[in-house]
Design brief:
With 92 residues, the chain is mainly α. It has one domain. Helices cover 76% and strands 9% of the residues. Strand 1 and strand 2 form a beta hairpin. Helix 2 runs antiparallel to helix 3 and helix 3 packs antiparallel against helix 4. The longest helix has 23 residues.
């Protein structure tokens, strides 16, 4: 199994619920980016971009996996927010 396929399919179980590894890794990278930014490290930008890209895939995947339209609108907003953060991070 390739690493990319594993990253998209891997889940962590918490009782009866599961959470995608992408969401965990994206959150950790986002927190790391914030800490690195506070320390004025340039590496904060690429770390944040990778974290936002992972979270973008989580929310976009949720749009296509749920049937309720209200939930889809919420996830479109979350995915759009992450896309905006990626664009702003690239701009600098």
């Amino acid at each position: 199994m390739s690493i990319l396929k594993w990253l998209f399919e891997a889940q962590i179980q918490f009782g009866s619920k599961s959470i995608a590894w992408r969401e965990v890794i994206g959150g950790v990278l986002g927190l790391s980016s914030a800490v690195l930014g506070l320390k004025r490290k340039v590496i904060a930008w690429p770390v944040g971009i990778v974290g936002d890209a992972l979270l973008f895939t989580v929310f976009l995947g949720a749009v296509f996996s749920f049937g309720a339209e209200d939930q889809q609108k919420n996830f479109y907003g979350q995915a759009s927010r992450n896309l905006l953060l990626i664009i702003v991070s690239i701009y600098g």
